[in-house]
Recover the amino acids of this structure.
C-alpha cells in the first residue's frame, strides 16, 4: 500500500528566508502527488499537484514542488517565506482509480519575524 | 455554495452518545469523501461517495460508523455509541470528478470531543 513520510515534524524559518519541506512516498506505480496547507481551525487547501509531465510544478502562493522519481520524493519549496505562510503542510499521494489517498503526518511551519 | 460546508464546527459528546455530522459539498460535485484527522496527524480516509452511491467504506474504523448521501448532495456521518478514541476532526471533501486530478476541496471540519 502507498505511504507518505514527512521527516520534519516542525520547521522554523525566518521571514524572507527560503523554505524546503520534504516528502517521500512509497508506491510501485507513478502516483498522483499533492501538497495541502492547513491553517489553524481550517480545512486543507490545495497548493499544487503532480500527475505526469514536467517534474517541476508551480502552485499557488509562490510555492513549487519537484518530483524526483529516483528518490521517491516530492519536496515543496518557496524562495522567500512570508509570515502568513505559517501553517501545517501535508503531502499526499493518491493512485488513479483508488479512493484511498494517503496523507503524511504533516510539517508545522513557524515563521520568525 | 462557494465551498464545502460542515456542521457543527464543534461537538462535545458524552461517551456512549450518538452523533451526526453534516457535510454540504460544492454544488455539482460528484465525489464526496470523509476523512478523520486525529490530533497531530494527517487526515485518514474513511469513506467515499460517487453521487448517492457509497463506493468505498474501507476506512470506517468500526461498525459504529455509518455514512450516507441519499440524494447525492448532502452527506451525514453518524457515529453510534461514541468512544473517547473517536475524538478527532472529521473532514469532508468534495471533487468535481472521480478523477483525483481535480484535487479535493475540503471543508473546515467538525471537531468532535468525546468526554
Amino acid at each position: 500500500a502507498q505511504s507518505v513520510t514527512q521527516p520534519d515534524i516542525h520547521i522554523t524559518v525566518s521571514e524572507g528566508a527560503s523554505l524546503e519541506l520534504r516528502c517521500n512516498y512509497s508506491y510501485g506505480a507513478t502516483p498522483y502527488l499533492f501538497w495541502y496547507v492547513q491553517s489553524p481551525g481550517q480545512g486543507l487547501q490545495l497548493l499544487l499537484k503532480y500527475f505526469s509531465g514536467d517534474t517541476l510544478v508551480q502552485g499557488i502562493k509562490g510555492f513549487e514542488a519537484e518530483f524526483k522519481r529516483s528518490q521517491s520524493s516530492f519536496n515543496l519549496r518557496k524562495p522567500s517565506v512570508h509570515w502568513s505562510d505559517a501553517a501545517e503542510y501535508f503531502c499526499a499521494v493518491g493512485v488513479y482509480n483508488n479512493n484511498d489517498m494517503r496523507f503524511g503526518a504533516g510539517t508545522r511551519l513557524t515563521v520568525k519575524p | 455554495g462557494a465551498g464545502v460546508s460542515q456542521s457543527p464546527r464543534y461537538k462535545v459528546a458524552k461517551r456512549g452518545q450518538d452523533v451526526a455530522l453534516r457535510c454540504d459539498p460544492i454544488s455539482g460535485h460528484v465525489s464526496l469523501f470523509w476523512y478523520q484527522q486525529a490530533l497531530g496527524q494527517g487526515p485518514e480516509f474513511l469513506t467515499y461517495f460517487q453521487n448517492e452511491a457509497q463506493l468505498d467504506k474501507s476506512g470506517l474504523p468500526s461498525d459504529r460508523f455509518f455514512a450516507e448521501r441519499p440524494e447525492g448532495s448532502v452527506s451525514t456521518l453518524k457515529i453510534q455509541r461514541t468512544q473517547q478514541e473517536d475524538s478527532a476532526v472529521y473532514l469532508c471533501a468534495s471533487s468535481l470528478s472521480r478523477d483525483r486530478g481535480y484535487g479535493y476541496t475540503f471543508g473546515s471540519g467538525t471537531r468532535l470531543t468525546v468526554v
Notes: The CA atoms of residues 10 and 114 of chain B lie 11 Å apart. The longest strand of chain B covers residues 88-95.
